[in-house]
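Fresh eyes needed here. I'd like your take on this protein's tokenised backbone:
***
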Amino acid sequence: MDTVRCAAFTWNTANVNVPKEAPIEMAEYLKKYSPHILIISLQEAVRSWHREFVSQRIKKRMGHDVHYTNGEKKTVSYNPLVEKEMGVITKADPQGIFGYTHLAIYVRSDLYDVNVASRTMLSIQLNKTCPIELIKEGECRDGPNWIMNKTRNKGGLYARLSIFGQPLAVIGAHLDSNKEENRAREVNQLCQSAEAQKDSHEETPSLIFMGDLNERITPFTNNLKTLLNEYKKECGETYFISQGDPLSRGEVDHFKYRDIQFEQLDQMTYGEFYSKTDPKKGQIKGNYKFKEKRGGRPDAGALDNIGIRDNEGRISSIALKVHPLMDKKGNLISDHNGVSRIFKFDFR
């Protein structure tokens, strides 16, 4: 084996207690690729009734049979390598909603080599070794701390891995929703923290940057408001993403500077609409919101995505998919769609 398959999934769960339909759907989709490494980034996450994050609920359902070239079959599960959360407040005041930014990395069980380390009459001590190792992990908060070690929900978590001796940095982020300069600062802090080594300040050649990145559609025409609100169905969401998504178009300087590239999604992951009509404010119920503090951008776009830096040509993409996750009644669980990306990592 000279490559490992990786499955990455990001989702802003909007501080809701996610029903079982979503973990079941995601586990069924992800295990089709039988990934060796499973990476899950959550924003505005809460624990379930059993005190579990969505990542843990997906991992529990990922067991499946693996058929090897020698004819052997084995049932595999996933072991936690990273399970880290950062307490946050969704609204920028102490009365806001408590939740978490969360990053989890799981490794398929058949990559572990288990040996008996010691044996007594009463017990056996096992020694587990794995060619996928955690080198470092941490968090970057952007904003003042308030109570209960929580802060406003911007910043993120990171982990640096060694995969058969080759480095891979993983970042799960929730970036600022209003100002580009804030997002740039957060990206720089996260990348510098994830990549810093005792003997070097060079960039890690392979890096995954995922999460709610809060890059809305850039106004690419003077009549964007009319097009988006009246002709979205005729144009299709792909049209607006292809013309105005700054992530996949490579127009975000703080990602471009760090050689982090994003593929184009086939549908939006977020949209915020007016809930009522107010002629004085020019608001029509059901239309997308446009806010001056966001430079006239609509509250819509491919805000959630999974980017890759691949300076050594080790990563090859297999699939990129948007997941509109729904409950049993067919209602969207969150105001964000999830996004998954399947890829191979060549460690030769």
Observations:
- The CA atoms of residues 209 and 277 lie 38 Å apart.
- Residues 180-195 form the longest helix (16 residues).
